[in-house]
Write a structure and sequence with these properties.
Blueprint: E1 2-6, E2 9-20, E3 23-31, H1 40-54, E4 59-65, H2 71-79, E5 83-84, E6 97-103
Parallel strand pairs: 3-4
Antiparallel strand pairs: 1-2, 2-3, 4-6, 5-6
Length: 104
């Protein structure tokens, strides 16, 4: 898990989980409410994608919410090249979840 900070202030965080030697999952990306729409999430996403490449992953996937609240996150992921996909790993279909993946 990594964090983005400004001094002692936490701006955001994110994690990368290994699903296999070639497939990683982006987990727990969050941005502090006061810092939304300032590029924190894009910075963290780019960092996680670089780390995934460094680890040798050829694909990265994620689960995000299907509700309107998560639309900014979905747009961020789509702008980074993620595409919608079926559930992966141990996930199952859920009306509250959307699954996305990106080839690296």
């Amino acid at each position: 898990m990594w964090s983005v900070r400004d001094g002692e202030e936490l701006l955001g965080c994110g994690a990368l989980k290994e699903l296999s030697s070639e497939h990683g999952e982006i987990k727990s990306m969050r941005t502090a409410a006061l810092h939304m729409r300032k590029g924190v999430a894009r910075y963290m996403l780019n960092y996680l994608l670089q780390e995934a490449k460094r680890r040798g992953y050829t694909r990265v996937s994620l689960e995000t919410g299907a509700m309107a609240f998560f639309e900014p996150a979905r747009k961020l992921y789509e702008s980074a090249g993620f595409q919608h996909c079926p559930p992966f790993g141990t996930y199952q279909e859920d009306p509250n979840s959307l699954f996305m993946t990106k080839e690296l």
